[in-house]
Amino acid sequence: MATAFVTPRHAGLVLALLTVSFVMGARAQDAPQPSEPSPSATPSAPKSEAKGGRASTPASPAAAEQHRLPPDSTTKQTVILPGRTLAFSATAGSIRLFNQKGEPQADIAYTAYQLDGADPVTRPVTFLFNGGPGAASAYLQLGNVGPWRLPIAGDAAVSSASPNLEPNADTWLDFTDLVFIDPVGTGYSRFVATDEDVRKRFFSTDGDVNSIAVTIRRWLEKSGRLLSPKFVAGESYGGIRGPKVVRELQVQQGVGVKGLILMSPVLDFREFTGSSLLQYVASLPTMTAVAREAKAPVTRADMTDVEAYARGDFLTDLIKGQADKDATTRLADKVAVLTGIDQTVSRRLAGRFDIAEFRREFDRKDGKVTGRYDASVMGFDPDPDSSFYHFNDPSGEPLVAPLTSAAVDLTTRKLNWRPDGSYQLLSEAVNKAWNFGHGINPVESISQLRQILALDPKLKLLVGHGLFDLATPYFGSQILLDQLPAYASPERVKLVVYPGGHMFYSRDASRQAFRTEVEALMK
After folding, report:
1. Is the link from the previous residue into 61 a cis peptide, with omega within 30 of 0?
2. Which alpha helices (DSSP H) does 88-179 contain, by range?
3. Distance (Å, whole) CA 184 – CA 472
4. Domain ranges of the chain
5. Which end of the chain is more exposed for a tag (fewer CB within 10 A), N or C?
6. 363 neighbors 280 (Cβ within 8 angstroms)
7. How many Cα atoms within 13 Å fall on the side-chain side of residue 257?
8. In the predicted model, what is the mean pLDDT of the chain?
9. Selecting from 3.30.230.30, 3.10.20.70, 3.40.50.1820, 3.30.565.10, what CATH number does the domain 61-271+400-522 have?
10. Average pLDDT over residues 165-174
11. pLDDT (tens digit, 9 = 90+) per residue, 192-213?
12. Which helix (H) or strand (E) holds 514?
């Protein structure tokens, strides 16, 4: 459950690209400097406020200090890995964000890892965050990228699994410094101001993007890393955040980015909701991959026939609609063959499987449901005889306990940073309060993706997906990336798909293959 995302249709917590900010030297107690013009360390105020409407009530100095996170903690660390030993500085701390009046708004927690002895001018630095909205970055840090890793697959993917971290042979620290960012309301990040308007601004698509971009800029300034090659990486809802953050950095914060890395991203909510027919096109290859994986291991190369069918005859019959009985029967029967679901059920649903319907029907005879984040993971349906769905996600929920314990133990014991209050791996409160904004237009980041690629011809994009991910199906990203103009050439934009789910990096081979792609991108 490294990251998820929420859609208007499924208003649950989606884990998606967790952002644990690893920052060295940035201090939470640093106020904006007088030389900074109009410090935009928090999302801009709504137009009504800018025009003289009711302003947010700042927290009193006493209240602000009461909510303050402890001073940053920097420790020297070493990990012994196969064939090498990495010595580095680890900083756990926070960056305080202010509004345009210089009033404190929120403390954003981060964790930064910087390799000893590297030239800061040439050494890349990567900023990572998860999604949700409401997810901390522990999934990416502890499941994939950081110097220590927690196994989150197989027997280790249960609530009672040991949260003991191990040295991560597949860490990215070999070739880039790492800064993991936890947006406000996740991890240990918290509000300082108490006004409800502040919460509304941060818990919005645009406000969230602005706060993360400013946090990145502030870290670069305070750490003396403005000259370093800079990369941004996001997971799940990080697919919405990522392109928007890079765009904000380019044109509002004065920070250029060399590359964007997206893992299991959602790029456009329009195709996951309502009556969009493309939601069925996007999910069919994943559903088929799950059925084939149950019989023998599969790779994306094994899905060529299904992808061609999804783009072709399947879409054609979908468009004809249920008014065309022959097309509907033909479609339903083909879907039954591909997914292994009973033909009678497929015909009843006209071959149009909602994600939840597929998850229940795939192995209903045995009282099992598939995971949403990884549909190759099966779990017992707690109410197999119910006519309604009462199950959650057997591929995601079991990870919450071990990841939370591991993140707290790492931060407080190994990194010696001890905030008060609870650590929020996944905040349902943040998720429910989120304002996706912009009226009738569902949130999307394809517009910003086009802009950042057009603005900087040297910027590159790498997208990684898992074959068995029903939260953000890989074929949905393929369809959207195929619509980009010619300037988004294969040399600049690459999609890779591996066996695995939303957190495809839980599988050793997939994690290692993606790491190789990331390293190549940064060279």
Report:
1. no
2. 138-140
3. 24
4. 61-271+400-522, 274-394
5. C
6. no
7. 29
8. 86
9. 3.40.50.1820
10. 97
11. 998 999 999 999 999 999 999 9
12. helix 508-522
